[in-house]
Amino acid sequence: MRMEKRKQNKLAYKKKTQWFFIAIASLFILLLLGYGVVLLGGKIIANDEELILDLKTTIRTEEGEVIGTLYKENREFTNLDSLPDHVKEAFIAIEDRRFYEHQGIDLKSISRAVYRDIIAMSKVEGGSTITQQLAKNLFLSNDKTWSRKIKETMAALYLERELSKDEILELYVNEVYFGQGIYGIQTASKYFFSKSADELTVAEGAMLAGLMKGPNGYSPINHPDRALERRNVVLHSMEDAGFLSTEQRVAEEEKTLGIAVQEPKASDPWVDSYIDLVMKEASEKHQLSVEALQTGGYDITVYMDPEIQQIAYSEMQNDAYFPGNTEGVEGAFVMLDATNARVVSAIGGRDYQIGDLNRTVVNRQPGSTFKPIAVYGPALMQGDVYTPFTLIPDKKSEEYNVVNANDEYKGEIPIYQAIMESTNTSAVWLLDELGIDYSKGYLEKLGISLEDDGLSIALGGLKYGVTPLKMAQSYQAFASGGDLTRATSISSIENRNEEVIYESTLERENVFTSQVAWNMTEMLSDTVLSGTASSGEFTKALAGKTGSTQHTIVDGATKDAWFVGYTPEYVSAMWMGYDSTDKDHYLTGGSSYPTSLTKKILTEIDRQTDREMSSSFEIPENVEPLPEPIELPTISDITANYEFGGFSIIKGNLNWNGSSDERVVYRIYQESEGEDKLIDAVKGVTEYTIDNVWFKNNKYYVVPYDPNTKMEGTKSDSVTFSW
Hints:
- The chain is α+β, with helices and mostly antiparallel strands.
- It has three domains: about 85-245, Biosynthetic peptidoglycan transglycosylase-like (Penicillin binding protein transpeptidase fold, Orthogonal Bundle); about 315-610, 3-Layer(aba) Sandwich (Beta-lactamase); about 635-710, Immunoglobulin-like.
- The strands form seven sheets. A five-stranded mixed β-sheet has the order 2-1-6-12-13. Strands 8-7-17-16-15 form a five-stranded antiparallel β-sheet, sandwiched between helices.
- Strand 20 and strand 21 (about 675-685) form a beta hairpin.
- Helix 2 packs parallel to helix 8 and helix 8 (about 200-210) crosses helix 9 (about 225-240).
């Protein structure tokens, strides 16, 4: 009986032991599963992309002047190693004293918080560690619920497993919000104390750490007394944690807040156009979207010249230069360095703001400003056929159906004169001779691609038009001696790690010979002095071309007005007009207005800055100077008289009034039946002696001749010799 009872007891004990181990194993499995769930949940909740903080992008000039910032959150990143120890200790003391001891969750703090929540029957106190706060800020919302707290815990454990303590603290001090739209300790330090975070004192670091409890409620700007009280609480916590001695704490408490607010620089309206151009170039050429620029923490160095930009913006505000039948006449101005096409100024509108239409990159009909790059430059590249003094037609033609603006025609004129007077008939005829494909080939080299295939290209009558920036770039080929450099506003781009990911290099492409470029400079200089671009005043060297287009609805009105030109230092393009074309919007003036305004801007640059403009263009080596055009005189008062003496005994002397230009050749003709006889020619003098006239009744006349164009002028009256 006893044996049987012992067996039963032994069997019962064995079963209990088995169930005990099963329970232990089950609990272990449950714990493992729970831990796995926590780990898996943490990985699901924690998006690693969120560990890459949004940083502001800074745009600065080559001299280091910041002209703009782009951001969603106003934050600069700073490395933890650069922060003074007392700054890190301030945050640890007040937010998570056991930060370096726990594994992301402080059970003591949680127990205390849970107890108080139960007593209050609601979520009233947090026991969050720095790691938990970081997890909440990065991945979760601010609502006080148990589910959010569980997620926060899971994410915190994940962070502790993936990152070191210093990495977590570094992310924390860079991520946290300090009020006033400020994120991160570096930006906060600059804002509240006008200094970098690595220069913060003990008291200053304590004040910033104190803002974690409530950046708005403890703002040193709006609530200085509360901010001072909160700072001292942090100092006491630092003492309690052993980071400060009592003597140090008392000394720091005696200090004022020492606030030296550095308000963020408001965006200057005169830089907005340029910043927008930089953003467009960053997107198109470097694949940096607006989103990337607002979050990526890039440092972009640009070529803007602040003084020139301000002058251009200021002068563009003058209504006197913008003629229109109603308000709203707009304009665009862009200026490049003549040697390298770097954009030193860009005005996208008279009152431009970020997000507006940036008219420096909007296509417009270029009018006659297109002639030098589409027709005359390419033509002169055929130097064996066309020179500046080659005669081309200037007359109406039913074939081309084109007229000159002044409805005047000279029959034939040299290319030089056709450029200065901007004759439409000549440009169209010459383009037809050259071939449209030939012209478009040169335009492609200049960075201008066209769908157009008609002769209207010669007059700038294009399907889509050309931007002011492209027009300035194309003329840069003339200004730089025939070599084109693509226009750029960006010098370099650094990423958030201070690595240079782009640096501008000077790449030139030869388009025109230096001789052709110089010839164009000479002709366009004369166009400014005495041709269609003579409006306004600028006393230094300037070459350029005007352009205008007819309004499509209102007869006699102007739709687009242009001036594109260059000095030895800069190339510029200016457009004027309305954004919309209809019967109620048209210009009441033409290209004289952008011409005059450009000259005014250049004058002010020369006067207000140290960028002194050159008085003349310097002819390159191995280039022949281009003679000035010869103006043939109308010969009047021709006389013919006998003279006695010498071997011929009787001579005839012709005298006439001519030109002071000694390059003019005078041809002396004797009238004859059939074809008159050319008997001689003299250069630079206005008399001629004929031997052995012997009282013959012959008639003579004189014709001025241009040796450059090989063209004769109007002949004089015919005379006979008399006493």
